[in-house]
């Protein structure tokens, strides 16, 4: 399969390594230095574009790709206020758009565990909920996209929680997300339920970027023959059935 990498930083390079191992051809590697090469991407020359750029560039890249009718796997975080618009463009132009805040299979299992735990804990209001995420110091956005997805999973399953706040003491109806930036940490997410007498904690620790990159290549392989809007649940549900 012909893959174009839109964004060729830490993730672009990790994705390249996995894609080549799996027999795919990288037909473009685009970063800020050669951003104009984006103009050459077309459905005739590229099967799937994998977009891991920056919170500031993703919307413009995705708009461009959707208008061209390309198939895109996107992992960039911090731009999702414009997600509905991008999904609308994908539908209009019969393109394909696959988004996940985290492509790691382990994190997607952790998302499911988080929802189950939230449902079990919802009647037990003596437990306060704390979420935390730790990432490397080059990360541009906070909270992480993954932490936001985790907070959304709690809100879907606990009616007492209706919004989240970042790095501030939460009100009773809010979930507090605490972000810290340390060294080269690839990504660590935890949820704690704390009462006066005990605590319950679930945690996912990525050891490297390989898990994210593997999931993104898997998503590209899965998307190749599809049009529409998809996420990891679609891919994992199909693989499990
Ligand atoms: N969903 C997931 O599983 C994961 C998501 N991420 C997210 O992916 C994004 C990228 O992460 P990471 O690779 O670590 O970041 P890096 O900063 O290492 O890489 C970003 C790359 O994007 C390039 N870039 C910036 N603007 C443009 C543009 N307009 N056109 C093309 N390329 C551009 C940069 O170019 P240059 O080098 O020239 O500046 C750089 O090559 C982040 O939002 C991060 O949160 C990260 C890991 C997993
Ligand atoms: O920027 C990163 O590195 C990561 N970003 C994603 C996020 O914001 O959740 C996924 C992963 O945790 C690594």
From TrEMBL:
GO BP term (any one): diaminopimelate biosynthetic process
Gene3D superfamilies: Dihydrodipicolinate Reductase, domain 2, NAD(P)-binding Rossmann-like Domain
Gene Ontology MF: a single term: NAD binding
Dihydrodipicolinate reductase C-terminal domain segment(s): 106-236
Binding of NAD(+), residues: 37, 75-77, 100-103
CDD domains, A to Z: DHDPR_N
Enzyme Commission number: 1.17.1.8
Protein name, as recorded: 4-hydroxy-tetrahydrodipicolinate reductase
Taxonomic source organism: Leadbetterella byssophila (strain DSM 17132 / JCM 16389 / KACC 11308 / NBRC 106382 / 4M15)
Lineage per the UniProt record: Bacteria, Pseudomonadati, Bacteroidota, Cytophagia, Cytophagales
Chain's gene name: dapB
